[in-house]
Design goal:
Distance between the termini: 12 Å
CATH class of the largest domain: Alpha Beta
Oligomer: single chain
Strand order of the largest sheet: 3-4-2-1-5-6-7-8
Shape: globular
CATH superfamily of the largest domain: Glycogen Phosphorylase B
CATH topology of the largest domain: Rossmann fold
CATH architecture of the largest domain: 3-Layer(aba) Sandwich
Mean pLDDT: 95
Strand content: 15-25%
Number of helices: 17
Largest sheet: 8 strands, mixed
Number of strands: 14
Low-confidence stretches: none
Amino acid sequence: MEVVYFVDEFPPFFRGGLGTYAMEMTRKLMELGHSVTVFSRNVDRASTRGLWDGIEVHRPVLVDLAKILPFIVPADVRNWPPEGRQFFAETLCYNILSASKLVNVLVEQEKRDFDVIVSHDWLSAPAGMIASEILKRPFIFHIHSTEQGRAGDGSTTIKVIEKLAGEFATIIVTVSYAVRDELVKLGYDESKIRVVYNGIDPTKYDPARVEKDKVSGLRAHLGIGDNELMILFVGRLTWVKGADSLLRAMPTILREVPNAKLVILGVGEQEGLLKHLISSLQLADSVVLENRYVSEAERILFYAACDVAVFPSRYEPFGIVCTEAMAMAKPVVVGARGTSGLREQVVPSGDDVCGAHINPDDPNDIAKFAALILKDEGLRRKMGQNARKRVLSQFTWDKAARDTINIYEEAAK
């Protein structure tokens, strides 16, 4: 198939998980013999056309539309802070220029043809709709999260863009059945929705490949002794990810497991609150706040070093950090209320148990299951083995790519 891929972030530019998804998925689609042409945001005056790992990438140079936003967008965007208005203006420009280049240069001048037009989230939805309407090709809209889920009530403008793209789309692809159910409640057409789980590369996330001396070195750097047990949180330091609930659970965990230490790895607006909680709960000797971005290789080392990973998210469409920890054969404790793709990843009981489901707003619930796992080495080992086995069967990029291309072919028919 010839696929057009509109996605806001693409290597070497990453803002979050969407960039990783786009990188891995386009690679796998190419390996399956399909052609993917990517249109992504231009950052730092990058080349407007080139190859990345054999994939054709277009990045139209953006112009500043911020001054004319009052003429072309609803009132709620005009009331955003200056950096938000600038971001929206750049996003609008990226969409219009990308759709124009596809239609006027690649199709009309170079006489190329494409089977499907694909957009990811609201950030690239307008480009996909414009191109699909002009080229009369099926439009596939990937929804990785919703504005309501990310931001509560959120932006009216973004919600309108998402809903319009959902109505326009031939097929909607989302990352979990939890999000599918959320979309149906929001009024999306259930018959259009297909679910494809995200994945990871299990050869990269493989505990057997991690050198033991590097694990020991990281634990020593973090101040975690050989006789201590490490709890790991990885994620944005924001309310929706639940690091605050995990901190509030620590006093109870320490009463049950006095040699436990918590490592929080991430950055975000909750940093000040978390530091206050560490101080007020007198946790300075039991919590390490690694407030920084790390490379993927270093993140894998953090997973290898921990004894249990805890992700008490209040809203999580899928939760790739959970998949990564599971691939590294670690037991996981996850938020399982509301929209939770984590709930679909983690088996909480039976022969295939690999972790626990908790109420992310109840520190006692978090503490109960974290302590239970920490106190039983045999249970940790069994959960970890089951976790990696589950990832290998359900959550690889190879499987995700095969399932995705089947949906594209369905739309093209």
